[in-house]
Specification:
Blueprint: H1 3-7, E1 14-17, E2 38-42, H2 60-65, H3 75-79, E3 87-92, E4 95-100, H4 108-122, E5 130-134, E6 160-162, E7 172-173, H5 190-203, E8 210-217, H6 223-229, E9 241-245, H7 248-253, E10 267-272, H8 282-286, E11 291-295, E12 314-316, H9 322-335, H10 337-354, H11 357-374, E13 386-387, H12 390-394, H13 399-407, H14 427-450
Parallel strand pairs: 5-6, 6-7, 8-9, 8-10, 10-11, 11-12
Antiparallel strand pairs: 1-2, 3-4, 3-5, 4-13
Length: 454
């Protein structure tokens, strides 16, 4: 067993008790130190070593880090990511330090940092020292073309963490803030919302749901969504689509009473379509038991690269044929009800079993751990960074922000190790994944062209 294996070995067999967050006595001297949980008593490890293998999508961690696999990551590389970052995160001896560079949209940075603090409580003593830059915006911006070329001295890309990527960029993917809650639009933390979505699925069987495709959101943020509006029911034609514009200002005034996600699982088909870039709504749509009609995405998040067409979702064209593509999918599903239901069920099962919060924390662990292995320097506390405590995030704002943070506060550590991370994909395996997707999508396009249900 190597030195790093010893460092990351399962926390000793004991129950660990964390001090509560105390906003009424909010002072730095009373804040909880992550490196000093209170040990209560020795007891048997309830689950033993976790022998589970991580879901396949975890293997994309290796692909995200491949640009630095041969060179390692130097401090200079990290610091070159500063112009594009919202904050710098440094972990030293289990304690978190943050240097902020820019204000993120809404509370994205706060909830992302909150999630990282919970990770350290979930796996105390197992998160290695690290130093990274993070950007909370919608679009990736570390473009491959800026860091590739025939010259042997081509500049290495700066490692930058964010929520989504695409085939033209090198950003490192990480779970988005909404897993811990999205107070601005009153979306609950993921664990609570998953339970509500599951209950929503049970209210109406798939066969009894409206036999149309449903979408609700802001259609003014992308050409794809603008195009989708033209597919709505009109006096001239019914494309089997029901599009509802989301007026966020009106929803704020009405307390979001018309935006309950668990109440929207009443259609057989739900449309996923990107906005400015990837949308955090993907997991909510996939969890609905409805068939996800995914308009050809140009971005991906940390888990979506392992979704398979015709198994987890039905692909939809993102061009002038979008309306016809959606109508064909709805007609196909209504003619093949059993197969359509199987697609919806496979997606919701994937979400329930492979995207619960335990898996999210395991992904975070492996992503940060694999990243730390590439660092060629010992992380140190930046002179302008401040130590981050739970109370710094949960106490100042109150309201839903504080509630969601308290609802997601980790009260005890995991009694088992993270899942076993599989090795990187081979070039052959990557080629097969890409070819399989392309083949299935082309098959559907051929059915559409010939107006054949296959």
């Amino acid at each position: 067993m190597g030195e790093r294996d010893v460092e990351l070995h399962i926390y000793p067999k004991m129950e660990v008790k964390f001090s509560p967050v105390n906003c009424t006595a909010y002072s730095r001297s009373e804040k909880w130190h992550m490196s000093s949980p209170t040990r209560v008593k020795e007891e048997e490890d309830r689950d033993g070593q976790n022998g589970d293998t991580c879901p396949e999508y975890f293997r994309w961690i290796h692909e995200d880090l491949r640009p630095w696999a041969q060179t390692g990551i130097t401090r200079e590389m990290v610091e070159r990511g500063r112009p594009a970052a919202d904050f710098r995160l440094v972990i030293v001896d289990g304690r978190v330090y943050v240097e902020k560079y820019a204000e993120a949209f809404q509370s994205r940075d706060s909830f992302t940092l909150w999630g990282i603090l919970q990770l350290l409580r979930w796996y105390p003593g197992k998160i290695p020292d690290l130093d990274l830059m993070f950007h909370c915006g919608d679009q990736p911006n570390i473009f491959i073309g800026n860091y590739s070329g025939p010259r042997p001295n081509t500049t290495a890309p700066p490692p930058l963490f964010r929520y989504c990527g695409n085939d033209d960029t090198l950003d490192i993917l990480f779970p988005d803030w909404s897993f811990w809650g999205w107070p601005e639009i009153k979306i609950k933390p993921w664990t609570s919302l998953m339970k509500e979505l599951k209950q929503g699925n049970q209210r109406k069987k798939w066969i009894d749901r409206e036999a149309y495709a449903y979408w609700k959101g802001n259609a003014l943020v992308s050409w794809s969504r603008y195009r989708l509006r033209k597919c709505n029911l009109s006096t001239q034609y019914d494309w089997k689509v029901r599009v509802y514009m989301q007026d966020w200002l009106k929803e704020v005034k009405q307390g979001f009473k018309n935006s309950n996600l668990a109440d929207q699982c009443v259609y057989r088909y739900k449309i996923y379509i990107e906005g400015i870039s990837w949308s955090a709504s993907l997991k909510y749509i996939l969890a609905c038991d409805s068939v996800t009609l995914m308009v050809n995405p140009h971005y991906y998040d940390f888990f979506s690269r392992s979704l398979v067409p015709m198994h987890h979702y039905w692909p939809i064209k993102d061009d002038n044929e979008m309306c016809n593509s959606i109508k064909f999918a709805v007609d196909w599903g209504n003619a093949h009800k059993q197969k359509a239901q199987a697609i919806g069920k496979a997606a919701s099962k994937f979400i329930e079993e492979q995207l619960n919060m335990e898996k999210v924390y395991e992904y975070m662990f492996h992503s940060l751990n694999e990243y730390s292995k590439l660092l060629t320097f010992k992380p140190t506390i930046p002179p302008n960074a401040t130590e981050l405590y739970l109370e710094d995030l949960a106490c100042p704002t109150q309201g839903l922000t504080t509630k969601f943070m308290m609802d997601t506060l980790i009260k005890r550590p995991s009694f088992s190790s993270p899942c076993f991370l599989l090795p990187p994909f081979s070039p052959t395996a990557l080629g097969y994944i890409q070819t399989r997707k392309e083949t299935l999508i082309k098959q559907i396009e051929m059915w559409e062209k010939n107006m054949s249900f296959g």
